[in-house]
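Please fill in the sequence for the structure shown.

STRUCTURE ENCODING:
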């Protein structure tokens, strides 16, 4: 007797799908169909409407004096951030330039930027004159206005920032506000869990109804990764062994023991270190973080030296060395090719400008140009290590102002007269932001910034505090952005390392000044700041694998909590050389997070979408990756065919945020506050005023007068600037107080 072969498929419980043209979610529920049957018939599945999902209604009760007091404090904190952030005259998505190429073979995966990274022609110079005053550049239209003391773009004052930082700290430490924010955050977390219980299947149905797209082929950006550790240990080892075997006789290093002697070949370098190529392994390479690096940032920094030798770091991992960074450039191009082969993974690498030498920018620009370093998948940030004290002790810097000169003078000069620094001018097209980095865990005495002098007076061997660094980096970026935008050039975001360890003041400074931050672990210690980050949807790039090796174990990492509560978080790799095992380190981060915290496919796709939004890629690129309305909030800005994020998820996120804003702003959703996601661009080529005068502060709140504009946007329009000749940067010797006035646009055309 013959028996039919057993089948893995369950017995059908409903008529064949051929009897109908479509399968709605209601039909599937009525027929008790499984998700498997829905997946098998995805072509006939209608996606659920984003407006029809199960909601949990929380009825507001009468407002208490405790809630009124807390809401007022939170409105003031948002107003402080509003007044400091740089506001582009035109948002990046308005009238942006399209990609340079529109060939059919250039798919939506590889989108050309609106600029040529190696364009030989440069815009002409303009007549602008830049002068330093109290550590911040002021820009004048021409030399005549310098004599008249009429700046076009004014700098900001450290005293004003210090005052607002104190005000924010007072709000953070207010007991009633802390209790209020904690309760709201817990409620947000519980509401998200209830949302998942009610709508998890509907999210999966909406994803199944989208053909082709899944987590693997949605665009994602590693928004926080250091260039010197961009690859994994096996890749670096293979690269080193290949160079030693094939090019061992190449001269690669100056002879330090005998300056007059012949430079050393690669074979001689390894012989001097008593190393043989066949003996090398990832264990002897010793660049991977282990249990000895936990809370030991000093030991972690030593992991940047292959085989524990600084000589090999200089040969293989430096841009400015005897071979002019050729090996590092070759390794970089190999990583570029890895990214291209994955198609949907992109990176924003951080490369250092130390501020110890006035020629650093020119050398870096030459390195990029000589080796033709550009990738459709990559943009760059400049990281500024906070190492003033080291260079001061070495005698390379006399004051903190010298460091600022070395960092910003070449950039202002290249903006005013691109021909003065042609390589720097072209490099700046690929730069999307600035960062400041160092060991935040180092103890440092709390310094009252109101008593600190200008940078030229900081001649001590002590390192300035974090907030001092942040203010002067940010303030000069603010001026630089306004100048570059006026000339049609791309601008830069400020996205510092903050909250990995150390004082909570680091996060407070960043809330006032930064577009987004990296790490942010210490937000779990401040419910007020955490709630403010939620209200403003400030970007947070977190690196759980890095944190697990250095400061915070995976089981204690706040990322899943932040995500459930609705903060704008994403995943990043930080240092693949120290933490990754494969040539796809970003996928390692996502896979570990998915397993440890049981993240769903929707969760992973939402994190990936957040990474693109936080990144500095141009508007035309974001439109290709996320959809043409990517900049809109909620479901209106979602194209599930590109993001694979169910619209009901973003609809829930936005509705919940609106409810919180209504609670804070007395049942009215503010539309004129730039730092809130509900901000509406009114057209007319400008965002409007309201960046310095207390009467103009958004949301009905006022703060102290006198603060000028700040920096935020990542309005990378990629446009070219034009101008005239004869521009200089010089140090002001007049009383800058006479230059300060209320913010906005003055009657004489000054940009405040």
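FILLED IN BY: designer on duty
SEQUENCE:
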């Amino acid at each position: 007797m013959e028996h039919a072969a057993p089948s893995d498929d369950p017995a059908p419980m409903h008529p064949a799908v051929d009897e109908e043209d479509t399968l709605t979610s209601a039909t599937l529920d009525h027929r008790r169909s499984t998700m498997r049957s829905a997946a098998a018939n995805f072509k006939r599945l209608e996606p659920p409407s984003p407006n029809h999902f199960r909601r949990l209604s929380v009825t507001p009760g009468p407002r208490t004096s405790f809630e009124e007091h807390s809401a007022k404090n939170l409105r003031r904190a948002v107003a402080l951030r509003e007044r400091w952030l740089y506001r582009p005259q035109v948002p990046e998505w308005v009238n942006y330039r399209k990609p340079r190429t529109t060939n059919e073979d250039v798919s939506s995966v590889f989108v050309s930027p609106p600029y040529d990274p190696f364009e030989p022609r440069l815009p002409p110079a303009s007549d602008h004159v830049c002068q330093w005053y109290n550590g911040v550049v002021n820009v004048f239209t021409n030399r005549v206005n310098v004599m008249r003391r009429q700046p076009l773009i004014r700098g900001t004052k450290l005293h004003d920032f210090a005052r607002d930082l104190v005000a924010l700290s007072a709000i953070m430490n207010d007991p009633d506000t802390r209790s209020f924010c904690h309760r709201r955050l817990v409620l947000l977390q519980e509401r998200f869990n209830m949302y998942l219980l009610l709508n998890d299947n509907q999210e999966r149905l909406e994803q199944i109804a989208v053909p082709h797209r899944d987590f693997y082929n949605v665009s994602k950006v590693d928004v926080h990764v250091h260039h010197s550790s961009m690859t994994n240990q096996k890749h670096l080892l293979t690269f080193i062994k290949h160079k030693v075997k094939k090019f061992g006789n190449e001269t690669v290093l100056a002879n330090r023991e005998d300056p007059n002697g012949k430079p050393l070949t690669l074979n001689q370098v390894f012989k001097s270190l008593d190393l043989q190529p066949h003996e090398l392994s990832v264990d002897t390479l010793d660049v991977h973080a282990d249990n000895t690096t936990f809370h030991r940032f000093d030991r972690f920094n030593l992991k940047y030296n292959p085989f524990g030798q600084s000589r090999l770091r200089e040969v293989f991992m430096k841009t400015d060395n005897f071979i002019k960074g050729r090996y590092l450039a070759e390794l970089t191009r190999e990583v570029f090719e890895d990214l291209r082969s994955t198609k949907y993974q992109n990176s924003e690498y951080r490369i250092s400008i130390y501020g110890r030498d006035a020629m650093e920018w020119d050398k870096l620009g030459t390195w990029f140009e000589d080796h033709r370093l550009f990738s459709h998948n990559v943009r760059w940030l400049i990281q500024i290590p906070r190492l003033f004290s080291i260079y001061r002790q070495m005698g390379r810097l006399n004051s903190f102002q010298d460091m600022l000169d070395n960092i910003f003078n070449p950039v202002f000069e290249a903006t005013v007269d691109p021909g003065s620094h042609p390589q720097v001018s072209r490099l700046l097209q690929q730069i999307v932001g600035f960062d400041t980095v160092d060991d935040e865990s180092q103890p440092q005495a709390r310094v009252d910034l109101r008593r600190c002098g200008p940078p030229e007076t900081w001649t001590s061997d002590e390192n300035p505090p974090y907030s001092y660094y942040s203010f002067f980096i940010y303030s000069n970026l603010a001026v630089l952005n306004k100048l570059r935008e006026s000339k049609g050039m791309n601008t830069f975001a400020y996205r510092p390392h903050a909250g990995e360890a150390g004082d909570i003041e680091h996060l407070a400074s960043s809330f006032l000044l930064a577009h987004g931050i990296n790490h942010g672990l210490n937000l779990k210690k401040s419910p007020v700041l955490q709630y403010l980050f939620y209200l403003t949807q400030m970007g947070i790039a977190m690196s759980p694998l890095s944190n697990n090796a250095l400061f915070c174990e995976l089981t204690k990492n706040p990322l899943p909590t932040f995500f459930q509560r609705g903060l704008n978080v994403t995943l990043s790799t930080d240092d693949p050389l120290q933490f990754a095992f494969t040539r796809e380190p970003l996928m390692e981060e996502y896979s570990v997070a998915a397993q440890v915290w049981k993240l769903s496919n929707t969760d992973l796709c939402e994190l990936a979408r957040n990474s693109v939004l936080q990144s500095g890629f141009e508007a035309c690129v974001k439109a290709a990756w996320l959809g043409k309305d990517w900049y809109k909030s909620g479901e209106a800005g979602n194209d599930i065919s590109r993001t694979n994020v169910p619209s009901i998820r973003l609809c829930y996120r936005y509705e919940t945020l609106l409810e919180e804003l209504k609670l804070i702003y007395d049942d009215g959703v503010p539309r004129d506050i730039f730092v809130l996601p509900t901000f509406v661009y009114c057209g007319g080529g400008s965002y409007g005023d309201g960046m310095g005068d207390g009467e103009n502060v958004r949301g009905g709140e006022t703060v102290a007068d006198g603060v000028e504009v700040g920096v935020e946007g990542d309005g990378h329009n990629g446009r070219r600037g034009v101008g005239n000749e004869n521009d200089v940067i010089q140090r002001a010797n007049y009383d800058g107080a006479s230059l300060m006035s209320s913010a906005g646009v003055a009657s004489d055309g000054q940009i405040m």
